[in-house]
User: Which sequence fits this backbone?
């Protein structure tokens, strides 16, 4: 095969073009810190990187959702601790009021109970980020009526997404916190008061509990001494305050068990909030681990190895210099240079 | 044999050496001329003359100037030129598409898509917040702008491809004219010549054919008179001195079709720059652009479907979040028209495009096929020229007027899917985060459902999620670019190897020519010396007896 000057020129030209391309690629990798510069560099790696990014983005959004939910639930938890303390205080007053003998004491207890009632009402109508927290979707409406103290919210759960296909409830329904149930409509139980009377508690509509105080042997309900009802702990406190004012010790004593049950309900609700916070904590931990793994994978997929890239750059540079030197020597010579 | 014959022999040597020096000079002068084939003088003996009873040589004559040429290599180079032209065009065209979808640098739709659905999630976290609602509208606007920008760039690339096709057609016609003229000159120069050919003209014509090979795939053969016939798609581009101009005509879809001799030969062109441009254009239209439009159409359809069922803070319901999909039709019938094309149910649209064609010889029947898969969707059913309403999934089309079997219509809910991809609501209060009127303002159920769309497989997208579908789209573009780049590298290398082989046969070597220069200079000097000797002999003869 005849080798011509032009053949050598073409070969050198191609070799220099290829080396310049290698040099530019290595340079870009060092400049950007990435080995993937365009999708065609490594299609499957780019698609993997996109998947990682989507998952990282999802994790980031789920984390934001969790932060928002955690803040709201932590605030709710704090309120419920406070509520629990208030109900305990009310129970202390109740126990004291059963034996209150003087009007002065009764007045003091009434004032205390009214204060506790107001605290309960205020807590029940607390807002978080401009929304009432002890309600459902009607989050701009005060959950508990300021006059009747009846629940006027709804029972819809407000969920946020914490993972693909997983949500957690952020709100806490007021009727689940401030009311309790003794069973299906019409369910009943009875207790005996210290004076021998029987107190019958019956489940009414919704969260209403109907109370009847009867004589001990009054099976036919002929001698009903007293009836009253309530649907939440705020109304119970109202009833208790009035009973103390009126020295109605039967009612006071009859409210002992409802307050115990209300506090149990409150504890159960708070445990539910705590469980949700635990779920969020666990999910946060999982997302943190997942994010770290995904970031490692993403880094391994698209980030350039600086040492390798620097060596490639050096190699390309050396090759280029060698090619230029060779070209300068070869291309400048022909037989014509030696003929005199 | 006389002394005078020595003069003649010396003279023939001078002429032969001078011719050889001219050929060598010409070789040196054309060392860098593309397509030039090295030439050599072919010397031969002149007829001997009788001298007594012996025959004595009578000098040298230039028999011909031979062109160093390998017909087979030239044919290989032309074929490889077509491959290389195609690869280069595909690499260049996909090279324009790839940066539009360069997710490695964060360029593309991925970020906007994630941000949009994240904004829905943020609305779900705080459905009554005006701030989150405004952010959602802003992110939705960013998504529409990103999609429209990408479509615009893709359409610009397609427009460039069509412009390049038109430009290539002009070049082809210019080359065809040159080849025709060279044919004419070669015929004239070689007419009646029995030894040798019109070397330089043939080199020029070969060079024109090499340039043509980079533009389009063609066949060629040489006629007895030395002219070349060039055919594209079984039609003559050049025949002898006659050329038929290739023309490009924009079709109903905005693409340039190629016509030769009045025949559409677009489908027969597979190689060369035009072949590459057509192949890339078709792939970009049928995969990249369609895929992007299907993705946007699916987002529009799915988000609107949920949004319409929800309730805004102001109690409004039934609102589209994005402007709904619209039908675009193409009319390829001189006698009939689409008098009505309506989307009857946005949610029932299958994101397919349809071709409506006609069969028979009057009365006609119509058939509807999927434009992408070719699957029969409806028909054949009798066509009524007074008005035929065709019901398709989610749409109905009414055609009226006389048709022929050559007529066709296309109906697409995708063509304008990105062009009309705009946020339909401007009032943040109308963002339907709630599923019920009673759920206002705190219900986030609908917002959660819409945010969760990003995790759901969409039947219109081949049962993939939005992000997976888009990822596959980016992957297909990367693969196409990689394939084009690899082909180009392969074809360039093969082209170089063939060129090196061609050069080894036809190329000019300065070393060889320098040697020839000395060689023919010396032979010229020797010839001149011969004449000097003959002259001295003649002088000697003239002075005999004096």
Assistant:
């Amino acid at each position: 095969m005849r080798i011509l000057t032009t053949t050598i020129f073409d070969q050198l030209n191609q070799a220099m073009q290829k080396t310049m391309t290698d040099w530019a690629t290595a340079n870009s990798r060092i400049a950007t810190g990435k080995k993937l510069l365009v999708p065609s560099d490594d299609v499957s790696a780019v698609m993997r990187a996109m998947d990682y990014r989507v998952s990282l983005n999802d994790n980031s959004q789920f984390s934001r959702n969790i932060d928002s939910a955690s803040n709201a639930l932590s605030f709710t938890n704090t309120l419920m601790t406070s509520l629990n303390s208030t109900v305990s205080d009310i129970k202390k007053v109740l126990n004291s009021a059963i034996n209150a003998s003087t009007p002065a004491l009764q007045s003091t207890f009434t004032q205390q109970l009214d204060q506790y009632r107001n605290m309960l009402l205020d807590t029940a109508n607390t807002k978080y980020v401009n929304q009432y927290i002890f309600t459902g979707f009607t989050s701009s409406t005060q959950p508990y009526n300021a006059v009747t103290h009846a629940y006027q919210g709804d029972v819809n759960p407000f969920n946020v997404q914490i993972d693909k296909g997983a949500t957690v409830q952020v709100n806490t329904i007021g009727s689940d916190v401030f009311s309790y149930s003794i069973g299906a409509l019409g369910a009943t139980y009875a207790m005996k008061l210290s004076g021998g009377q029987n107190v019958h508690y019956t489940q009414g509509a919704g969260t209403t509990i109907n109370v009847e105080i009867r004589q001990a042997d009054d099976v036919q309900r002929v001698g009903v001494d007293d009836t009253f009802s309530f649907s939440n702990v705020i109304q119970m406190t109202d009833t208790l305050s009035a009973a103390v004012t009126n020295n109605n010790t039967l009612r006071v004593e009859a409210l002992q068990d409802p307050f115990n049950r209300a506090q149990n309900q409150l504890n159960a609700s708070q445990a539910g909030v705590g469980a949700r916070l635990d779920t969020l904590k666990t999910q946060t931990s999982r997302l943190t681990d997942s994010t770290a793994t995904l970031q490692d994978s993403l880094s391994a997929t698209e980030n350039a190895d600086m040492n390798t890239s620097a060596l490639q750059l050096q190699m390309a540079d050396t090759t280029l210099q060698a090619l230029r030197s060779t070209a300068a020597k070869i291309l400048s010579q022909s037989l014509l240079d030696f003929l005199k | 044999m006389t002394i005078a014959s020595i003069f003649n022999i010396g003279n023939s040597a001078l002429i032969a050496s001078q011719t050889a020096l001219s050929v060598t000079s010409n070789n040196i002068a054309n060392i860098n001329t593309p397509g030039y084939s090295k030439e050599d003088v072919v010397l031969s003996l002149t007829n001997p003359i009788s001298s007594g009873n012996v025959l004595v040589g009578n000098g040298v004559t230039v028999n011909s100037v031979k062109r160093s040429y390998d017909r087979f290599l030239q044919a290989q180079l032309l074929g490889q030129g077509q491959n290389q032209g195609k690869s280069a065009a595909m690499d260049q065209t996909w090279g324009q598409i790839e940066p539009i979808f360069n997710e490695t640098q964060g360029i593309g739709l991925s970020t906007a898509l994630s941000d949009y659905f994240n904004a829905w999630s943020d609305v779900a976290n705080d459905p009554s917040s005006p701030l989150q609602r405004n952010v959602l509208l802003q992110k939705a606007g960013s998504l529409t702008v990103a999609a429209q920008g990408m479509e615009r760039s893709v359409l610009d690339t397609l427009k460039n491809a069509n412009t390049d096709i038109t430009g290539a057609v002009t070049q082809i016609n210019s080359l065809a004219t040159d080849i025709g003229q060279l044919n004419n000159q070669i015929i004239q120069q070689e007419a009646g010549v029995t030894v040798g050919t019109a070397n330089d003209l043939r080199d020029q014509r070969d060079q024109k054919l090499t340039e043509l090979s980079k533009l389009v795939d063609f066949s060629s053969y040489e006629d007895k008179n030395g002219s070349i016939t060039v055919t594209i798609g079984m039609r003559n581009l050049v025949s002898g001195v006659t050329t038929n101009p290739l023309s490009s005509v924009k079709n109903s879809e905005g693409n340039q079709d190629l016509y030769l001799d009045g025949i559409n030969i677009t489908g027969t062109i597979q190689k060369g720059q035009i072949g590459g441009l057509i192949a890339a254009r078709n792939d970009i239209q049928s995969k990249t652009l369609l895929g992007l439009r299907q993705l946007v159409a699916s987002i529009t359809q799915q988000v609107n479907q949920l949004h319409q069922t929800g309730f805004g803070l102001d109690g409004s319901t039934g609102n589209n979040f994005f402007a709904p999909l619209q039908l675009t039709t193409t009319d390829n019938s001189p006698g009939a028209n689409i008098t009505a094309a309506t989307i009857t149910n946005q949610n029932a649209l299958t994101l397919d495009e349809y071709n409506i064609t006609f069969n028979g010889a009057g009365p006609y029947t119509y058939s509807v096929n999927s434009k992408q898969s070719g699957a029969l969707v409806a028909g054949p059913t009798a066509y009524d020229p007074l008005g035929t309403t065709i019901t398709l999934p989610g749409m109905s089309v009414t055609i009226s007027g006389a048709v022929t079997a050559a007529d066709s219509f296309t109906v697409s809910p995708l063509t304008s899917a990105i062009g009309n991809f705009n946020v339909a609501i401007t009032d943040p209060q109308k963002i339907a985060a709630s599923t019920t009127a009673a759920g206002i303002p705190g219900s986030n159920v609908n917002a959660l459902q819409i945010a969760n769309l990003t995790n759901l497989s969409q039947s219109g997208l081949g049962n993939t999620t939005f992000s997976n579908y888009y990822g596959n789209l980016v992957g297909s573009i990367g693969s196409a670019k990689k394939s084009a780049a690899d082909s180009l590298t392969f074809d360039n290398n093969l082209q170089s190897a063939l060129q090196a082989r061609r050069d080894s046969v036809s190329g000019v070597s300065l070393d060889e020519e320098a040697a020839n220069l000395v060689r023919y200079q010396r032979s010229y000097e020797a010839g001149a010396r011969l004449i000097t000797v003959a002259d001295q002999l003649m002088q000697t003869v003239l002075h005999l007896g004096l």
Observations:
- Chain A has a mean pLDDT of 91.
